[in-house]
Amino acid sequence: MNSQTQQQRLRVEVADWMSTHLSGEFNCLQYRGGPGDEEAYPALRKKWERELASGGWTGLGWPKEQGGRAMSVADQVIFHEEYARAGGPGRMGHIGEGLLGPTLIACGTEDQRKRFLPGILNGTQFWCQGYSEPGAGSDLANVRTRAIRDENGNWRVHGQKVWTSLAHDSDWIFVIARTDPESRGNRGLSFLLMPLDQSGIEIRPIKQLNGGAEFNEVFFDGALAAAEDLVGSPGDGWRIAMTLLGFERGMSTLGQQMQFIRELEWVVDAAREAGVANDPLIRQRIARAWSGLRVMRYNALRMLAGADADESGVALSREALIYKYYWSNWHRELGQLAMDVLGPDANLIDSADAKRTRLQGVFLFSRADTIYAGTNEIQLNIMAERGLGMPREPRGTL
Question: Is residue 333 flagged as an active site residue?
Fold first, then answer.
């Protein structure tokens, strides 16, 4: 059987499984739980993670010796595309399965892999990411959260993290903290794994413009990170963090693009209903959005093309460096197009109008795309310095 036939069979298998299982009690999860909608049905989406695990659809790219399926990049692309096409809900387990799990496989101890990977794979343990701080968002090297080693070799953590997605629905958090008080910049940082259900940790929701609160502030007041839950060595946190960010530019990008395709379809439908589908300027902007999606897809495939050959899976190509900048600006423009298509109705709030509310959600959330996970300005610096080898931008002192 040739590879093309095998891939077609896999595509049918995934589509059939999704059709059978994303039904009944899970039917309400279709197209829910994505960016800007992450508060939707959290308990049921956790149960959906267990459903996926029972079908063998977690850890697709993980090595078999770590419980994964060791799928090729091409096969993983097929899964993510068919998952999104079927309306698969936003993954509650994404941070664990897509980011922390591969990082522990690459950088963790055998003990850490034995303790944490099974819960991630079977959908019973959920993680959030403790990177950003009030004064260290895009500039991760400026973190001030500190960790002090006690007489037992454990770490006591003090500080604050912010914009922590779904911390209130998570069991564990991985934290970048400064363990060398004399260090500056990206030196002297460590990567710690911490249970959230403990004294010394307080989670406060951040209320957003649309009424949701999927983001949180997390405060640490002497919270415990056990000695065995340090990943790498003390001071090795920057390398671990960059390894994890390499996985963030990974396979889930294809699923993200399927969500973008759906949103563009919503915009086109709204344009027809509003009677502006034949407006030359609107048509031109829709065509530009459609073309942009194709550019995004081909760049993502190019970005992932060498992943099978890279055993570590963490090398960031030049194509990966431009990805976030491209999609975030494209998505922000789509959000603005959605409002322009709706016209004056875009300013009216009516919870009974699901289509309008959905497009308003796209607009509101897309305004943050060029800020979180590295602002446009930071992304351009990364492209210039790491991708093109240009001199570092002068950093002034305050």
Answer: no
